[in-house]
Amino acid sequence: MSIGVFRYSALGDIAAAIPVLRAFRKKPLILTSPLGHALLKNEFDDFVILQNKSPFEVARFIYTLKKRQLELFIDLQNNDRSRFIRFFFKSIDNSGVSFEQNVTHIFYDIAKKSNLVEPLDYSFTKKEPTYIVLNTGSSSKWVSKRLPVHKWREFSQILTDRFGLPFILTGDESEREYVEEIAKNIVGKKEVVAGKTTIQDLKKILREAYLVVSTDSAPMHIAAVQKTPTIGLFGATNWIVSAPFGPWSVALWDKKRFARPPAKNLQIVGDYYEGINLQEGLQKLASYL
């Protein structure tokens, strides 16, 4: 059976889908964006890429899938565009799936309806003590996800005292100035690679790290799905749905400020992170470090 799995955006959600894509008994046809292809191309071979969102490109995409004789369209995007595309195919969507769980498990519950997937892989091998990644940034749209500089200094002191490993600070070109400011204010040996990496470079850095401490972002998900112990830092966004994947990962938030996740993600910058306790996360991940 010819199966296509569709996730166009965002990069973090495409990353969160990786354990599900790996769980198919037969590698599926990956239906994604150019950015998704850049992330997944080292693990999967067969792609149909939706180059952009224009009506002409959507029509070309559907024609290509028809030509490929696609038999089942598994929709992990579930928006108006993907609903239009799947109208032309036998499909599986998110109907009946609980959204009160981690995004990877949401995707898995959708895929599971095909009866074509194995259980998710939770095997784990401890990492070599190489370096710790601090992914401190966020896109300009989500500045509310960024922690104050003094929290990163606090975290760097705890991590240096505990592990004595160097730091690599990641981010894209738009985040470089902010990341460099963080680097100036933290303790320990550090290297800033923000704006200097391709997606595959970043994927490798995160895979080979001993530990990743990250804002709610694509790098957080990329690290976790590669079984790197990951601490995700939350406040402005929902830590139930967006938590990093796997028992080697943990979501932290300020428990004094938030009794539950915000009903809607918060784009307004606020005092969301002051009470986050990194030691709590390290304790929860002790058996993986």
TrEMBL record:
CDD domains: GT9_LPS_heptosyltransferase
One GO CC term on file: cytosol
Annotated GO biological process: lipopolysaccharide core region biosynthetic process
Annotated signal sequence range: none
Name the record gives this protein: ADP-heptose:LPS heptosyltransferase
Keywords of the record: Glycosyltransferase, Transferase
Top-level taxonomic group: Bacteria
InterPro entries assigned to the protein according to its UniProt record, in alphabetical order: Glyco_trans_9 (IPR002201), LPS_LOS_Heptosyltrfase (IPR051199)
Gene Ontology molecular function: ADP-heptose-lipopolysaccharide heptosyltransferase activity
